């Protein structure tokens, strides 16, 4: 079966893909007809596709997150590839395909990622930090197997959030070795907690975010995580003004490093400074890696990357 | 006894005043001697004063927040008035003066202010909003009699925070009458809660802030208040994701109206929009009023006001 | 007759509506044909509509601001409702409908609004302020019955400008009672004058702005209003440097509260500070109210509101 | 007599200078005494000076803008030169010196500058533009002989405003020759009018600004000039919405080229674009020239120049 | 033959034009067909055009930068003129037309422009400045006959870069006469060098930029020009830290006048200040002139101009 | 000998210290006398000190960067410690002290640091990258033993630049292992070259920067480094447009990650993104570490740190 990333203009293909997005539209000409404006995806990439002259049944059948069998033609439209769908049907049990075969996911199995994070927590020596981190981690553990780290910016795929945490934990340990004045438990707990409420901020399935939750819009994941730490401390009977509660809440609150403008808080603990920059380097390099990965290797330049000040990345032909 | 606001260059006076600030300094000339660089205050205003050739005993005796009897001379220095102290002693019991006679305070008694706020809370109809507001209010009620609303910006005096709340509650009720689609309980609770954690953010006595607390610096009063609402809900067994918890936390979080940049949250409820602008109008007009009040009436222009984009206010001679 | 706000996908309807906007477009398919891309409106809301295969006569007949009888079908297109027009004709005299039945307008009759403003002016005690305000008011009185306060931002409907003034006058009086150091005549005159030149800045009919005038683009309504005050003073033989002229011009000039950067002027009178914040709170709350009003009640969130930092408003399900 | 610009540390000198600024200060040591903190100036530069142990008489005698005879010693203090005054007296009639000998002034006589401007106006062909320009010019003609263009930024000396106009008129004519689509009368009138109200915005004598007027602070010179054009049109019975009034007001309003943010207006006529950039180039190059002129030639770098983004200018040793 | 600038809706015409841009698109209706979305241009202006039902041969034949014979119909679409192409063929030798007849170009022949620049260089007196300028100039001399100064902003046509240089050289000489403290050789060399690497930054033909080069994206024309000066100095055996190398590199580096933020350099030589403002005035006035030139004279307002803060220019009807 | 970091108010001490800064000032009282305003330093910290009644000889003897023997008294002045000098003399040969005993320096010997960097370069596999890096490195190798990385921001001490490089090289290698798509030679060379021209930008001795060089002000270290790469390529006969030259110049140019605003270049290679964030994390954590190190351990909060948005760091009392 042909991977989407390998499509070339003129290809005719048949295979299974995932309907990542589906919109019903009408042609604007004489007697307007309905058609489906689709985003097909597999584990390698995604592509725009059209099903012209869609029947009522088509509209009802082909909803987002459905695996389908497609016969299609690859064309060029406005300098981008696009699929004209010739035949389309839902995958059936006999086809023996599963949605998880068609989604992008972290390069390491999420079971392994979650285990790694649990191991880091279990090795913490500071009892209260360990307890609070465990409490918050358990609130989302089940969702962590799938949750992405963001809607589009970076690590936007199955297991992306856990993958982001694991990479940051590796970097965090290395930096603590370089600079022993950093308190490792505090920094590693900050890494685990800084984005821990993202699964409550965004509604997602199979690593694909559909939208933000009401809580997500009105409070945001940072303030949710801060509330979870309050909740954990109350349940664990740790004083709300204990240094470890103050420290963990400060790390979460300040990790975006905003200017002191109104309610925002900037890093004022060494570990908070470290957390911000470890988060930044991991997120930015992952954006670069993901974009290079989904850009055909024949392209010298990737598309523009929003999170990198909207710049593209160049494949420098170093020998 | 002469009020500081009435001092004119050349006056010689004797009276009781408060040592609001005291710093020990050394003259820079030949054989350096110690002197005290003082801010004297009373209920009308404040003024810089010097006690030259301070003895060891003077340094130990004259500490901030002491009421003293001063014989002094009013001079002009760098276009501003300043007092040269001739004689100075601590007030004694027989003098029959109290520190509260010398501090600036809200124009309404703080007992009355606190009673007014309690009445507004007691009249709320929404049971959970009323309960959460009561819980948080009681955490600081004792401090509210004295607490200022800010270190210098606005309402920076005895009872200033309660006064700010009461004025905002009046405006809030008026706006709810103009626009019945606003839910009064939610808005009024938001007004009570938006700055409720300020007494925990700043260390103050008699309405004068000495510095920020560690909690204040690391979390800020907004996030403290949000945590208090979480705490209240847990104690009161209200679900943490109930609409009233979400709504009150959103009002507090968004009242500085920051751009959506990282962790910041902007108003997304009608009452949150109202809260922000009611807070703004009350704070800004109070800055104007306070500055006019402490500026001698012979001055056409007040000093520059930081919170008003550093502009001065002009006394327009309208007939 | 069905109100636009009540339309549901699948409805078929017949009724009278206003052609708020009409654009002639061509289908992009094979042999391109003309069609009309229309915005229909009534007093409740507005909706996009298409007339396919428009004849030359259609193009000439159906121009903006015409009341028409429509038979149409409500469809969903790109997640929004849209009308496919089946039959369309101009309203005739026998239909007994008037354009004013189909426009959005302030919730209070504009006659009443204008009368209210006149009453406030007539009660002013400062003779020159009253005379200047009257002079400027009379320049636009006839247009005030219809003029909107803005093209889209807020109060963008029939009588919107007068409604904005009246609400601000109510707030202004309340604030003057709270804070007697404010000079009511100056503030109330400033409220009347701050947007008084908007009818000269924007071309509108029935409260709908078609475009900005050349004067509006080259000078802007603020500088036009300042010139009108100069003109009024000259006609009334008031010195151009009299405090009341200076004060009123300053209130108008500074009401957007810009940083002192080049030619911009920031509030430096107490009444100018009050004017700015009263304008802000009224405009922002009206944006919220208008948007909630035109959003179907089945929607949890309104569309994004430009003037509120592009945030949406949430209908919090408080019991 | 030694010019200030030529002073070297260690010099002892006697001569006549102008007291540009005088402040009475007190020494901070043991028994504080008064001294005068002075800025001495002549036509070449200015320098800080101290008169220690000032008597009451000294304080009364030595006020700003007095010409004095000074015997002094040049010393270095904080890496800058400073004068210790040994003897000081007011200049008397027999000394035969005049204040105009001690002020910095434009390099061309102001009589000549004013004549040049009048000639440019007299050669305008467009009757109304010529009449309006003449009217406004005559309002300040008497002050133009002395008025500076700014307090400190550029052309801050006797005749500086007229000098700025003349240089801009030269550039304006050259640009009109390069680009005949520009209407010379409109551009040249804009050059004359753009800063015409500066004498009403700032109080100055002999080209030295002491402070801003109340009108200057509350309205600013740009809006004053716009009002003058309105006044001129009314007196000359030119319609207030005639293109020439609109054009001239637009040129004045937009010459600072602010972003469209609230009340500000940006250039939207070709001549308005030209005016902004001609103003900029003349002001910036004059800052450079003035700063190089008042910096001792032994210095490689000038002081930082606020109007040039706070950068210093380097004397590149090109052979 | 009809010039594009003279087209009026309804015109039918036959003539030769240049295919400036061609994109293959598909109609979105029923059975999608290909059509060509074209930009036709001649020396007067440009216009959008469509060739419906394009065959495979059409797609291969009609590529950008081809001169064609067109029979077409001028229509109005979305308030703009557009051409419906009826017949289309490539120009043949017998047609006796050349691509250079159809491109916009500087109003002076580029031969003359290049000669003028060479003359200015040849008259320089400072040997090293002259040698470095000559070296860099010769690197691009052949390209200067055609190169535009920008992709769209200003002087975006055949010979535009040379034209920009010549105009700036005229202004530069005038300013040096006004202000003799400016060193003419340094300033004029800076004018020649400031944009000299633009031909290496952008790929263009006949004055039309197709895209940026990889060097252009990764280094930018400013840093390329700085490197060329290094290269020139090494070849000419001038020390890399000689004042003339330093001066010329500084002029190039600082000509965009950025705030000192990281690697950016602001003008710190008098000639660098002059260069920045001469560049600005020439570029901005040319944008105005070009936009007026390509806007039909019947339009009161030009389109918005990006480089002028996105403002339009008004044709003020001065008599 | 007592370390400065251990000074407590009231201490009297005798020992050797370095005169890091010396300024001659005058007392402002009656008969002004000269005194020396000094910064004393040793390897642990630095402190302000005064020598009252300085003689002419004192002024000539005690110049910056002299090692002296001091008898002094530690006092508190404006809440900070300060030394009143009782006796002072230059260190003599018999004292057997060397300036290097009194300067702050990197925690690893600079010989070791330089050797480490050379080893990394020697292990590069890409011949041209290795050659260019070696060429540039050798230009400053001798200065690298002492050069600081900045004037005050971070690594502002003896060997600070080499220390910054070494730490970044460690991090760079770790990140390359985490993410094998990064080309290690390019990234490591970028780390060596990104600040390589700092010794030419700043004049320093013993790790203390006295000022910026003229080259530093006019071109800046980034553009100097880019020129050195051009110079290296020419000497090594590598084409100036070879990918390795382009890549290295891009890494240097973009490492401050400026928005694309005029001449500035942002990271567009994966290694450039990595370089920017590795530079940031190392610089910021070093600021934190250095500030904690020089702040007495009795202080809960450090002073404000400019490079960290002017925030202080808190010593959280985690058990």
From TrEMBL, chains A, B, C, D, E, F:
Keywords: Hydrolase
InterPro entries assigned to the protein according to its UniProt record, in alphabetical order: HD/PDEase_dom (IPR003607), HD_domain (IPR006674), YhaM_exoribonuc/phosphodiest (IPR050798)
Superkingdom of the source species: Bacteria
SMART domains the UniProt entry points to: HDc
Pfam families for this protein: HD (PF01966)
Domain HD/PDEase: 157-293
Protein name: 3'-5' exoribonuclease YhaM family protein
Species: Paenibacillus yanchengensis
Taxonomic lineage of the native organism: Bacteria, Bacillati, Bacillota, Bacilli, Bacillales
């Amino acid at each position: 079966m042909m991977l989407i990333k390998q499509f070339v203009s003129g290809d005719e293909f048949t295979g299974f893909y995932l309907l990542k997005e589906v919109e019903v539209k009408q042609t604007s000409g004489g007697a307007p007809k309905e058609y489906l404006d689709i985003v097909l995806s597999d584990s390698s990439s995604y592509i725009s596709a059209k099903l012209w002259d869609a029947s009522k049944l088509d509209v009802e059948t082909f909803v987002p997150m459905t695996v389908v069998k497609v016969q299609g033609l690859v064309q060029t439209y406005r300098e981008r590839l696009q699929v004209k769908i010739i035949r389309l049907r839902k995958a059936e049990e006999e086809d023996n395909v599963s949605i998880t075969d068609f989604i992008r996911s972290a390069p390491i199995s999420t079971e392994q990622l979650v285990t790694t994070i649990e191991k880091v927590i279990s090795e913490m020596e500071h009892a209260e930090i360990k307890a609070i981190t465990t409490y918050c981690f358990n609130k989302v553990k089940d969702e962590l197997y799938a949750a992405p780290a963001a809607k589009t910016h970076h690590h936007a795929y199955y297991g992306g959030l856990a993958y982001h945490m694991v990479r940051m934990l590796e970097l965090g340990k290395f930096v603590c070795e370089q600079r022993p004045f950093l308190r490792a438990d505090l920094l590693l707990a900050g890494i685990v907690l800084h984005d821990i409420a993202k699964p409550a901020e965004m509604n997602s399935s199979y690593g694909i975010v559909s939208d933000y939750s009401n809580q997500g819009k009105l409070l945001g994941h940072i303030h949710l995580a801060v509330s979870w730490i309050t909740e954990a401390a109350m349940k664990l009977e740790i004083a709300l003004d204990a240094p470890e509660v103050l420290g963990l809440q400060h790390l979460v609150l300040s990790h975006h490093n905003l200017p002191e403008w109104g309610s925002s808080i900037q890093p004022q603990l060494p570990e908070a400074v470290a957390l911000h920059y470890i988060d930044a380097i991991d997120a930015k390099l992952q954006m670069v890696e993901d974009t290079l990965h989904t850009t055909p290797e024949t392209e010298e330049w990737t598309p523009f990357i929003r999170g990198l000040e909207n710049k593209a990345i160049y494949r420098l032909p170093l020998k």
